[in-house]
């Protein structure tokens, strides 16, 4: 009888360890799915930029510095596509800043603002930016869940045994992007 009780306890402990391991694997997969979503949206944005640049170039020829900044930021973001979330975040933040500056300067060109192609690209870019924000929230939530599990007892025992590690969030690098905008009437 004692042997059966001990065997039942061992089976229960092993079953619980398997459950914890599978939970960690599931959370890691959700995190990777979230990263894939971010990656897809960032690729969509970088694919839009050349067409946007062609539309803008004719109107903003003397804004060469701004145009070159967008092209360089896009090239850097594209070349860093296999980087860590922190590296990608920095590169994508620079691209977002360059695009923001381009769109702000475009406000000074009434003909450009009235161009339907430019308006379509601007709308598509806004949609992609919204999708990036949603994908980033999903990814960061998945990372939070994984990190909590990796640090919480008793899952941390299983996590350490099977080399599960905390992951990094995809965050804004530019502190100015975090600031609350000031609205004045």
Structural overview:
By secondary structure, the protein is mainly alpha-helical. The protein has a single domain, classed as LemA-like domain (de novo design (two linked rop proteins)). Helix content is 79%, strand content 0%. The protein is built from 7 helices and no strands.
What is the subunit organization of this protein? single chain
**Uncertain residue segments:** 175-185
**Beta content:** under 5%
Average pLDDT taken over every residue: 85
Summarize the biggest pleated sheet.
Answer: none
Radius of gyration from the alpha-carbon trace, in angstroms: 24 Å
Integer count of domains: 1
Which architecture does the CATH hierarchy give at level 2?
Up-down Bundle
The CATH superfamily is identified as LemA-like domain
Number of helices: 7
Helical fraction equals over 70%
CATH topology, by name, is: de novo design (two linked rop proteins)
